[in-house]
Write a structure and sequence with these properties.
alpha/beta; Nucleotidyltransferase, domain 5; Substrate Binding Domain Of DNAk, Chain A, domain 1; six-stranded mixed sheet; 15 helices; 35 strands; binds adenosine-5'-diphosphate; binds magnesium ion
């Protein structure tokens, strides 16, 4: 048995840590030179690759063959640098860095590394996360998961400073990124990430650049040296900037000395006030993001317990002072900003895997904003960090390219909103028309962020094949399951209704030219056979239905059955009665006379008096493994006892491609009816006398064979995006007309 480690793969520095299981705390694993952190700098020399301090020194001395800051370009497939005729992508370079860390850990501890958790900025997109995993794979690491850096920092902080219900803002300003995350310490040793935001183009490097600019303008004003005249001045100023900045973290003035063959020597001084003034807008950008995060949670600065500073750039004194001025809190520097992230990752290697949060596409809710701070418990030390459990949220919404309701443009339809708890999976079903001899392939374009398709991050193009053409079963009902795994990576799985194997999904490179999604979508012609209709009617038979209401309901249902006879392809109907129990009065069948007899056999209170049950399990069971269009019509009177559960089960129907329409009267709850309905047909709230009429309306609407483009949720219906491409030009256009279940 080897060891499990946490790795902070930083832009400027990296670190590794593991649990000291005897003491129950995480510890840093120093490198073979005894340093606790290793610069993320690589130098390629002929035949030799140098990583860490030596490479950093070479870099600072201006030697050739050095490369650094490649994490900032993580996810770019193009070469980050070309050295000695060899090109390296950020993945290659990160793999070299990770391999170095692994080798050093194995050398220092004398043990093999079995498993690792690697940290990434919360703001990383799928592309960057996936590139990080590729790098780890190349480095020969077995990765348990990726975790967000702020969550890791909070985990490390929680070990010595456990306070139940404390709400901590983690302010992480690193070399290249800024993240702000709200974390809560919950009972049972849970460290939960609530919400996160950030800017991954803002970090210490931007302060360096400002400082370099300041030095350049001083050189021009004081010595008449301009960058136009002496281009090397810029590089010299850039090289000096970081160390000047660091000096200003402990002193009020810092000396600057520049020299070059080009302009000779130049020296000056920079004061802390000059530095702070030149970077005021940068620090403001961070606090604006903090305040934005708070306002999204309906919190003010007073609603948080503490601010925890992590990331090397929080050593700049302006960070604490500006935050204190804005927030009234004295920020904590209780964790070593260079080490906290790796320490937290080491804790999470031992956390049990979190369970998937499941739901229907578009219906996953973000975490609720925390209400009040609650009673903040005494600060204590945890017995053992091994018992801490953490959970993360996704910084970006997950979406799919779809066609707007009016068919006029492409939209980004949100599947999972940002800041949903991960891991999360959700499904949606839709109709897909196949054609004989066509390729019958489905294209899905996944996005991150909530901007229109062309402005969002395109995660990938997924092509689904294996949807066989079956004229009797056209359109095919296809169900897509989207997920964010616990590392924040997106996955897509596709199944055909009623089958239990996944269809092949091929991830393809995203086309360079996505401009077609900026144009109006092609009009879709819906072709194909009318579908067979399968309808289960569920009627509330609780006490409140006694007498006239039940009589009217039965009349309306019989009337509906008569209408159903007029539809092609042998429609089928089933009947369920529900109050304290759900009873199947008739299974799905095409004998409409038998169905009417079954409806007429329904008696008052045959399933109890109250509304303890819901019919959705039975509806789902009766419609399982049937071809064609599947409907559940639910007639409700009064309030049901467990509406939350009923809605959840109704959504499972939607997920399986079963459409539900709710009809209510009496004291039924309108919102509840809306929630159980899948949206293909709007739920209805009617008086008893109008029941026959409303059933007639439903019969008309569900009878029109093709999936229709009406109803609320077609606003987010993907049509041509999901059309199979039939480039050959032969055959009828294949349409993937989608009914999305919210
Ligand atoms: P990352 O995780 O992105 O690698 P770090 O958290 O290691 O970043 O922070 C690196 C940044 O911190 C660099 O921009 C560096 O200049 C800055 N930094 C490090 N020490 C100091 C200091 N004493 N004063 C100001 N900035 C510092
Ligand atoms: Mg960092």
């Amino acid at each position: 048995m080897g060891i499990r480690i946490g790795i902070d793969l930083g832009t400027t520095f990296s670190a590794a840590a593991m649990m000291d299981k005897r003491k129950g705390v995480p510890v840093i694993i120093p490198n073979s030179e005894g340093e606790r952190i290793t610069p993320s700098v690589i130098q390629f020399q002929s035949g030799r690759t140098i990583v860490g301090s030596e490479a950093k020194e070479a870099y600072e001395a201006g030697e050739s063959g050095c490369t650094s800051s490649f994490k900032r370009s993580m996810g770019d497939d193009s070469a980050y640098c070309t050295i000695g005729g060899q090109s390296y992508t950020p993945v290659h370079l990160s793999a070299i860095m990770l391999r170095h860390i692994k080798d050093e850990v194995e050398m220092v501890t004398g043990e093999k590394v079995d498993e690792a958790v690697i940290t990434v900025p919360a703001y990383f997109y799928h592309r960057e996360r996936s590139a990080t995993l590729d790098a780890a794979r190349l480095a020969g690491l077995n990765v348990k998961q990726l975790i967000n850096e702020p969550t890791a920092a909070a985990l490390a902080y929680s070990v010595d400073h456990w306070r139940e219900n404390a709400r901590i803002m983690v302010y992480d300003l690193g070399g290249g990124t800024f993240d702000v995350t709200l974390i809560e310490m919950k009972s049972g040793g849970r460290v939960e990430s609530i919400r996160t935001t950030g800017d991954h183009t803002l970090g210490g490097k931007d302060w360096d650049a400002r400082l370099a600019g300041l030095i350049e303008s001083k050189a021009e004003a004081e010595a008449g040296l301009s960058v136009r005249e002496y281009p090397s001045l810029h590089n010299a100023a850039m090289r000096a900037a970081e160390s000047v900045k660091k000096q200003l973290s402990s002193r009020n003035t810092a000396a600057v000395r520049l020299s070059s063959e080009d302009f000779g020597k130049y020296s000056t001084e920079v004061t802390i006030d000059e530095f702070n003034n030149a970077t005021l807008d940068l620090i403001k950008r961070t606090t604006t993001l903090c305040e934005q995060l708070l306002s999204e949670l309906s919190l003010s600065w007073s609603g948080i317990t503490d601010i925890l500073l992590v990331g090397g750039s929080t050593r700049m004194r302006q960070v604490s002072s500006f935050l204190k001025e804005r927030s009234g809190h004295s920020p904590l520097m209780h964790v070593n900003p260079d080490e906290a992230v790796a320490l937290g990752a080491a804790i999470s290697v031992w956390s049990p895997p979190p369970e998937y949060n499941e739901g229907v596409a578009g219906a996953i809710s973000r975490d609720k904003p925390p209400k009040s701070a609650g009673k903040v418990g005494q600060e204590q030390k945890l017995q053992s960090a091994l018992s801490v459990v953490s959970s993360d949220v996704c910084a970006h919404a997950m979406g799919v390219i779809a066609v707007s309701a009016d068919g006029s443009r492409y939209i980004n339809k949100t599947i999972v909103p940002d800041n949903s708890r991960i891991p999360v999976k959700c499904a949606e079903s839709f109709h897909y028309y196949t054609s004989e001899g066509g390729s019958n392939e489905l294209e899905i374009y996944m996005l991150q962020g909530e901007k229109p398709p062309l402005e969002s991050e395109v995660i990938g193009k997924y092509t689904v094949s294996g949807i066989t053409h079956d004229p009797k079963n056209n359109p095919a009902v296809v169900s897509i399951q989207y997920s964010y795994d616990r590392s924040g990576l997106v996955h897509v799985q596709v199944r055909r209704q009623g089958r239990d194997v996944d269809l092949p999904v091929k991830e393809e490179t995203v086309p360079k030219d996505m401009s077609k999604f900026g144009n109006p979508p092609e009009k879709v012609k819906v072709t194909g056979q009318p579908q067979r209709l399968n309808v289960v009617m569920a009627v509330d038979v609780s006490g409140s239905m006694n007498g006239y209401p039940l009589k009217e309901a039965k009349k309306a249902m019989c009337h509906f059955v008569d209408k159903l006879r007029q539809y092609p392809n042998n429609p089928q109907a089933g009947v369920v009665a529900v109050s304290d129990r759900s009873i199947v009065v008739m299974k799905l069948g095409s004998d409409m006379n038998k169905c009417k007899a079954a409806i007429n056999s329904i008696e008052e209170e045959m399933a109890g008096v109250l509304n303890g049950a819901d019919p959705f399990e039975d509806i789902r069971r009766l419609l399982r493994n049937t071809d064609g269009k599947r409907w559940g019509i639910v007639l409700a009177d009064g309030r049901w006892d467990d509406q939350v559960k009923a809605v959840r089960r109704a959504r499972m129907c939607h997920e399986e491609g079963i459409d539900i329409v709710g009809i209510g009267f009496g004291t039924a709850d309108e919102k509840f009816l809306h929630d159980i309905s899948s949206g293909e047909i709007e739920s209805m709230f009617v008086s008893q006398d109008k029941l026959v009429e409303s059933f007639g309306k439903i019969a008309r609407e569900i009878g029109s064979a093709a999936p229709k483009k009406t109803g609320r949720f077609d606003a987010v219906t993907a049509v041509s995006t999901w059309r199979a491409t039939d480039e050959s030009g032969g055959g009828s256009p294949l349409t993937g007309s989608v009914h999305s279940s919210r």
